Amino acid sequence: MNQPQRVAFPVRSECPSCGAAGRLQPFVQRSNADWESCNCGLVFLKTHYAQPAAPPPPAQDGSAGVAAYQQRYGQYDSRQRRRVDKSRQQVMDLLNYVERGPLLDIGSSMGYTLQAARELGLPAAGLEMDGAVVEQCRQAGFEAQQGMMDRLPWPDAHFQLVVMKHVLEHTPDPRLALGEVRRVLRPGGGLFIAVPNLHYHRAMRDPQRHRFFGFSGDGHADGHYVYYTPAALTALLASMGFEVKHVHPQLLHRRAPLPRQLGQLAAAPFRATWHAALTAFNLRKEFWLVAVRR
How do residues 141-172 score in pLDDT, each as one tens digit? Predict the structure, then answer.
C-alpha cells in the first residue's frame, strides 16, 4: 500500500524582521521543517512539511469548561505560586521605566501575570486562544478575551503595560503582532517580552537535533516560527517604534518596598556576576527585555 506523501507548506520567503530575501542562508533542514537565517540575526521557519490530514479542530470556545482545563493544564498549573511570583518580578521590571496603569497580558495562560497584577494593584486583562483557559481565568475573576495577538480586541491606547511571555515566537509575522501591540499601548507605555534565546548553547551546539527547530505536525498548535537574539529583537522593536531599555532580569526595582530594595541592593553584586556568566556562556534558554513605546 502506498504511503501518503508529505506536503510542503511554505511559511515565509523573506525575513520577518527586515524583509530581506537576498541575504538568507539555509540554517537547518529537517524532515518536517526548513529553517533560514538572516544577516540581521533572526532564524525563521521557511517551510514545514506534514502528511495530508484533516484540518485541526477549532480552538475550544469554553464549553468544555473547568474539566477540560484541569485535564489539559493541571500539571502545568501545579507550580502556580512560583509562576505568579516570577510574573510579579517581571511586571516590576516594567515599572522601573514606566508609570503604573492598565496591563494587558498576551498569552495569559492560567492567569499568573493577571494575578501578579492584581497583587500589585493594577487593572489587567488577558488574551488567550483557548476558550477553556479563558473560562478558567474568568472564573478566577479576571478579565479575559479569546483571540489572536495580531487582532487585539481592544481600542487604541487602552493599556499602559503589555506583557508577552513566550508568544512572539508563535507567529510568522511578528511585525503585524507588534503593530497591534503598539496600537493598544499608550505613548510612553511599557512592553515586556520573553522569548527563547537563539544563542542557547544546546541549540547552537547541535541545531539539527535540538527541539528548538522541530515543528508540530499540523503546523498550528505549538510550533515556533521565529527565534531571536537580543540584538535582533532590539532592532525589530526599534523599527516598530519602541525603545529597548533593558535586556535580561533587572537587579533593582525602584518601585519595590524599601526592605525589598535593600535586600536587592545587598544581593546585586552576586546576581550581576551570575547573570554575566549566564550571558557569556550562552546558558540562557530564554531572554527578557523591557521596551517603551515612543
Answer: 999 999 999 999 999 999 999 999 999 999 99
3-state secondary structure of 199: coil
Cβ-contact 178, 234 below 8 angstroms: no
| CA dist., res. 250 & res. 37, Å (int) | 30
**Cβ atoms < 10 Å from Cβ of 149:** 21
Note the pLDDT tens digit of each residue in 175-218. 999 999 999 999 999 999 999 999 999 999 999 999 899 876 44
Phi-psi region of 247 (alpha: psi -120 to 50; beta: other; left: phi over 0): beta
Query: Which residue bears the cell 532590539?
Result: 234
Domains of the chain, CATH where assigned: 65-195+286-294 (3.40.50.150)
Task: Report DSSP letters for 224-269, one per residue.
Answer: --EEB-HHHHHHHHHHTTEEEEEES--S--TTS-HHHHHHHHHHHH
Look up the pTM and report it.
Answer: 0.90
